Amino acid sequence: MNISKLNSILNDVEKPTRYTGGELNMRVKDLNMPDGTPRFRFALCFPDVYEIGMSHLGQRIVYNILNEREDTYCERVYAPWFDMEQALRDNDLPIYTLETKTPVGEFDIVGFSLLYEMCYTNILTVLDLAGIPLRAADRSESDPLIIAGGPCVCNPEPIADIMDVLVFGDGEEVMDELMDAYSEWKKSGTSKKELLRRLSRVSGLYVPSFYKAEYDENGNFSSLNGIEPDAPEKVERRIVKNLDAAKYTGKLVVPYMSIVHDRVALEVFRGCTRGCRFCQAGFIYRPIREREVETVIKQADDSLDCTGYDEISVFSLSSGDYSHIHELVPIILERYEKDRVSVSLPSLRIDSFLKDDLEKIQKVRKTGLTFAPEAGTQRLRDVINKGVSEEDLLRSVHDAFVAGWHGVKLYFMIGLPTETDEDVLGIAELARKVSREFYSMPKELRGKGLRCTVSASTLVPKPFTPFQWEPQISVDEVLRRQALLRGALKGIRGVEFSCHFSETSRLEAAFARGDRRLSEVLISAYKNGARLDSWDEHFKKEAWENAFAENGLTVEQFANRKIGLDEPLAWGHMDAVVSMDYLKREHERACAALITHDCRKGCNGCFGARSAQICGKKEGTK
Amino acid sequence: MRLAVRFTKGAPVRFVSHLDVQRLFQRAFRRAKLPLAYSQGFNPHPLVSFATALSVGMISMGEYLDVTLTEYMPPESFIDAVSTVLPKGIEIVEAFDMGESRKSLTSAMRSASYMAEVKFEKSVDADAVKSALNELLSGEIVVMKKTKGGIKPTDIRPMVISVDVCEVEGQRAEIKLKGVLSAEGGLNPDMFLKELYNKLGVQASADITRLEIEMDRTAL
Lengths: 622, 220
What we know:
The complex is a heterodimer of chains A (622) and B (220).
Chain A: H1 3-10, E1 40-46, H2 50-53, H3 57-68, E2 72-78, H4 82-90, E3 109-113, H5 120-129, E4 145-149, E5 165-167, H6 171-188, H7 192-200, E6 205-206, E7 211-215, E8 221-226, E9 235-236, E10 264-267, E11 269-270, H8 281-284, E12 289-290, H9 293-307, E13 311-315, H10 325-337, E14 342-344, H11 355-364, E15 369-374, H12 378-383, H13 390-402, E16 407-414, H14 421-439, E17 451-458, H15 475-489, E18 495-498, H16 503-512, H17 518-527, H18 541-550, H19 556-559, E19 574-575, H20 580-591, H21 611-615
Parallel strand pairs in A: 1-2, 1-3, 3-4, 4-5, 9-19, 10-13, 13-14, 15-16, 16-17, 17-18
Antiparallel strand pairs in A: 5-6, 7-8, 11-12
Chain B: E1 2-9, H1 18-31, E2 48-50, E3 59-68, H2 75-83, E4 90-97, H3 105-108, E5 109-120, H4 126-137, E6 142-147, E7 150-155, E8 160-169, E9 172-182, E10 185-186, H5 189-200, E11 204-215
Parallel strand pairs in B: 3-11
Antiparallel strand pairs in B: 1-3, 1-4, 2-3, 5-9, 5-11, 6-7, 8-9, 9-10
């Protein structure tokens, strides 16, 4: 790497420390092991800008696990912002890793984290700037192995032609198995095809090129068939059984610039028992696995010691559901009070919310409060299985107001299955009651003025949820329902409306449930200039419209199509462990507005015949 | 107690902004478990202040900050404690007890010296550089400077204390520069050098290192 050329670029780009590395606790390793054998070089890429990628806990865990291996050196790379991409191209410099400034094309393995569909073009930016062919089929024996993991692997088909291997499930165990298999293969001196064969035999790894997709006469996906003798019929999601004993982040890399989540994140559990029917995370991280309080405290101590951070965030899908939350929070608060460490508890559910907790959080720092009723009427909340009642919400906001808060955010979704205008107007009704709750309190008891923000996003039906067969509502319908809601919210004291239906919601829906043909759409969109698509202000609508048209496809055929319960699904070969029968049953119950109780109250049998094996429970038992 | 600290900002951290350097030290002090004193108020922060900022991209052999501690700590112990927890590129070279002084380090700054490694777009002659320099220094050096009231023409000549052309070889030159640096402001070496390039009629860019900030320690 030409460092002086790089320095002159860095003088001119925005936020240069996105690209400099050298942070405290960055892993520094020799390229060779003590015996002289070269280490495997792994470029771990979060395909978005540094401040977002560095905030991602999963990537920090994988970075640590890979670097704990003697035979591997894992380095980081992020997607460049527009100015840096241009500067690299203008100066004929390749994209490089932060640790050793090595061009990404020289690595053995390049691994991407796939957290949201709208980061897909950034993968292409990185591959392209590394001089690596975009399509797996075009890559040679000397190109790095291109792999990806993360929640989007639930439906890997839209990137099937780009990736060599996909990693399905928790990285804690499977990453080691992947590297072991890679190491064995390296010793064998055989072809890349043989590497793929070996990897396809590791549980949780998927090699898309070993399968061929078929489409019916209507242009819909019909089947995916193995074309390699050994290609497994199903790819099972890997699950770390004992999260408490699993490796964590090790020494956290401390960024120079401020990043989105600039604090110590303590993952107290993985999974969620609630079963909200729109929530993919609620299904694909099952079963719930908790860490012990002592383990969490130890991780907090270690992380604070090695970083100097002054903030801790208790991290999970629903922190209030942690069975030891009332034990943990006071311990953390007391333990670090003298060090002035503040604690934040995001993802608290309304019904698990306690006044005492509120007062404790307030003692340290008063951050905003967010509630997510998700739907405006009880009927629709039952459809989505959001077990929250109006009384729960009003009691919680009342408690918050009494405790001195005067800013609350209410999150809703529109476009939920079976939603009527009455449900949309119900959102405004709920907001009105919140406003009334505030202003009916004596002035001396409440804060100055209510700031209640109602925000409404649009449902993106996701694979492995009971709504996976449902269409996203059309753009016109989204706009009509938003206008309806905006009108109904007008004049409610202290309430403001924030909604944005971005084009990206549509694309997200198409890519969430899309098939293999979208790989070419993606490549076309990239060539048409689509970049960093989740940054609304830089979204290039025409690039995407043209990309679909160039490939003879439409967004609507993926985003807005209702799929029959018995039709083949493009992601049907992925086995998220939660059974399809269970999802169908949940779909039926949703249509009938029947709630399904939290599985802590008794097993609902979501893993079907495998329930006993996966979480040691039997349907109907606690 | 209040400790004054002189530290370097090397190549690995040259692109870290001033704001991020401030946070970097706050975190380092926390890692070192120093008895930090905090400000009063709604959002208390450790009492750490910097004498001056350094431009992003510049390297420095000696920047200054002061930190207030709730109990006495020998400066050597302070250096030992903090040195082990600093990222690569930042090094503490000196720490001294500020005693009862309540004055800011900024108020004691007088001047600063810089070494510029200049890279010209084409070969230049040492004599040409020197005569361009002499010509430049013989009168006013008016540049357009951003001030509170907008962009205004300003004469920066009074800010220049001395300039030495140490070496010129082909497209490269080493120029040592000393300029005023005080609470009221100071010489921007990059701006001065641009005027020199203009006078010379050759495009160039420079890698600048701040060698030293001269402090009047009796003024503390």
